[in-house]
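testing teh design pipeline on a random one, pls ignore if ur not involved
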């Protein structure tokens, strides 16, 4: 790994206060017992729990983030959460453009870009997600799809400090399937190349891999060139499942 890794958990629409607090406390205890100086660790709980989890994480090395934010600062957008609200609740990161949002909420690259810009304007680090569908992979379009998404979802003013890119092949999310290490390395090298044409400090941007990351495959994936961390769904819900993945970032 060339840059400071980020191991991030995305709890998606999972978690009620009591159980989630217990898991978060268990994770914080593990972080406090380890030397985490070499790695950033993040949990993105559902919006209802951001404040509570951020309060629990205060004073620890654990970061808390949102899973999405609205592009507008405030206003008549029933049910949405602004980046400033996430920040106010204690978040330091926001995921934008997750494939579940691109699919379930018809989010285009243009929308994702605007959300990422809103996150950065509020002082959050934007984690911009990209990834091809199985159909696109099978028809040989992976790299062109990734280029299109990276180029058109990248926030204006992106820097290595305010932007992270997560490569999450849609077909690998929640399926137990992962691309081969060679395929992951190919896409990540390609993304680095794309970013080099788009920004100054592209070499410092964290490129995360996401999609069925588990304790058993994390080390192999994290060892790949241009893989600077992981974005973990199912295996981030329990501290004992997430911890071995975090350890790959500490190694
Ligand atoms: P899984 O780790 O459950 O496959 O989810 C990946 C993901 O979508 C993280 O954002």
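output:
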């Amino acid at each position: 790994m060339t840059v400071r890794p980020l191991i991030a958990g995305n709890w998606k629409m999972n978690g009620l206060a009591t159980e989630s607090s217990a898991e978060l406390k268990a994770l914080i205890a593990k972080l406090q017992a380890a030397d985490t100086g070499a790695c950033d660790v993040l949990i993105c709980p559902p919006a209802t729990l951001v404040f509570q989890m951020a309060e629990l994480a205060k004073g620890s090395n654990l970061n808390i983030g949102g899973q999405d934010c609205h592009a507008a600062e405030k206003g008549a957008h029933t049910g949405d959460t602004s980046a400033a609200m996430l920040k106010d609740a204690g978040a330091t990161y926001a995921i934008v453009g997750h494939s579940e949002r691109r699919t379930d909420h018809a989010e285009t690259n243009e929308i994702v870009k605007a959300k990422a810009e809103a996150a950065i304007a509020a002082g959050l680090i934007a984690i911009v997600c990209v990834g091809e569908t199985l159909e696109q992979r099978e028809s040989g379009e992976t790299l062109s799809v990734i280029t299109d998404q990276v180029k058109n979802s990248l926030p204006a003013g992106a820097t290595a400090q305010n932007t992270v890119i997560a490569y999450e092949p849609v077909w690998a999310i929640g399926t137990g399937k992962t691309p081969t290490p060679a395929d992951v390395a190919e896409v990540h090298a390609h993304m680095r190349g794309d970013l080099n044409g788009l920004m100054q400090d592209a070499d410092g941007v964290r490129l995360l891999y996401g999609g069925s990351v588990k304790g058993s495959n994390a080390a192999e994936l994290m060892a790949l060139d241009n893989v600077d961390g992981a974005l973990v769904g199912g295996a981030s819900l329990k501290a004992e499942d997430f911890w071995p993945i975090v350890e790959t970032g500490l190694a």
